[in-house]
Amino acid sequence: MRTGELLLILTRCSIIAAVPLPAQDWPMWGGTPQRNMTSAMKGLPSSWDIKTKKNIKWTAEIGTTSYGNPVVADGKVFLGTNNGNPRNPDIQGDKGILMCFRETDGKFLWQAVSNKLASGQEHDWPEQGVCSSPLVEGKRLYYVTNRGELVCLDTEGFLDGKNDGPYQNEIFKSPIDADVIWKLEWIGRIGCIMLHNALTLLPAHPPAGGLLGYR
Ligand SMILES: [Ca+2]
Fold first, then answer.
1. Number of structural domains the chain divides into
2. Are 68 and 75 in contact (CB under 8 A)?
């Protein structure tokens, strides 16, 4: 998906789980571990218009590219993108970005920033940003960066004024920056290889073969 805007349809028709969750959140790709994209909601709008705002609750500017489907949890919307429209003027150039917005009105809250891999397009294709879909459980968000790191974030970011978790080495700690709880740099450590941002392969039955794709 290539877009510069994140749209939230008025009745959240695109983010309602097939089996409604208690808060009607959509905390992972597919809504639930069953990955059933079908919504059980009735009376949903079947059309919308960005110009007239018909059935559009709000819009928000993201980067110039986004592959990861938005997830909705804890009163927030999260998605991966690139740094095509820098939210922080001090952070310029090609980066992997995970953005967080307030669910009620689309206000930008905070972002996680990852530098590109030095190996270039072999592993980290230019301008593709963060391609993984986040998963949220309670106050913790999990995603895979463009660098192949598995990262756990505090859904409140640094907005709560606290640096949570054992990880304390964040470079950016302003209220619009992500609070890292922990990160695992797994590429090359557990027999895992990464072809590029959107696809990671790891051996399911090494060394005889068998590959498990992970996006
Ligand atoms: Ca931290």
1. 1
2. no
